[in-house]
Write a structure and sequence with these properties.
With 61 residues, the protein is mainly alpha-helical. 79% of the residues lie in helices and 0% in strands. The protein has one domain.
C-alpha cells in the first residue's frame, strides 16, 4: 500500500512487534497474570494493529 520502502519497512517492524505483544498477552492470560476480560480486549487491539500495519507494509497484496 505504501510506496516508500523505508515507510514499508517501519510498518513491517511495527506489525512484528504488535504480533509479539498479542502473543505475550495470550501467554499472560494463560498464566493468570492478567484477567481474562482485559487480556481479551488487549489482544483484540494488538491483533487489529498488527493487521493494519501488516497491510500498510504490503503483506496483503
Amino acid at each position: 500500500m505504501l510506496r516508500n520502502k523505508t515507510a514499508r519497512t517501519v510498518c513491517g517492524v511495527i506489525a512484528f512487534v504488535m504480533f509479539f505483544l498479542a502473543l505475550g498477552t495470550v501467554g499472560s492470560m494463560e498464566q493468570d497474570l492478567i484477567p481474562l476480560g482485559s487480556g481479551f480486549v488487549r489482544t483484540l487491539v494488538f491483533e487489529a494493529l498488527f493487521a493494519l500495519f501488516a497491510k500498510l507494509a504490503g503483506a496483503m497484496n
